[in-house]
Design goal:
Structural class: alpha+beta
Strand content: 15-25%
Number of helices: 4
Order of helices and strands: EEHEEEHEHH
Distance between the termini: 43 Å
Length: 132
């Protein structure tokens, strides 16, 4: 059975009443962090449901990476395979927050590895300063 959780500030709290949990989720601010550099969108949120299906601490935070629509169109046009968009899950707010910024650094560094015409597209579209 899936276990539901809510947040008390940054602490996760079990919520066995599904109706109370659903009402809380409707209005809660579940965003830990969001980063968009014009090419990639990285989002870390509180899920409210334990996604650890193998036992152990509940995994209730998730970081996902997405390409912006404009960059997806450019990679398709130039036939560039931008694989490696991933999903990470975390147990506590502090892990999720630190994990978000580690993912941002990893993914932004990855953009610096491209050469050729796609590198020109990245340079034109990117709105952040590369992370050292």
């Amino acid at each position: 059975m899936l276990e539901n959780y809510i947040l008390d500030h940054h602490d996760i709290v079990p919520e066995p009443d599904s109706l109370k949990w659903a009402r809380w989720m409707e209005t809660a601010d579940v965003v830990v962090a969001r980063t968009d550099n014009g090419i990639m969108y990285i989002s870390t949120v509180f899920l409210g449901i334990d996604h650890n299906f193998q036992g152990g601490p509940p995994l209730v935070f998730e970081t996902m990476t997405f390409l912006t629509d404009d960059f997806s169109e450019e990679t398709a046009r130039l036939k560039v395979d931008f694989t490696g968009l991933e999903c990470w899950r975390w147990s506590i707010w502090e892990e999720a927050d630190a994990g978000h910024w580690n993912v941002v650094q990893k993914m932004f560094r990855r953009l610096d590895q491209f050469k050729g015409p796609i590198a020109d597209v990245i340079k034109r579209m990117r709105v952040d300063t590369p992370v050292p």
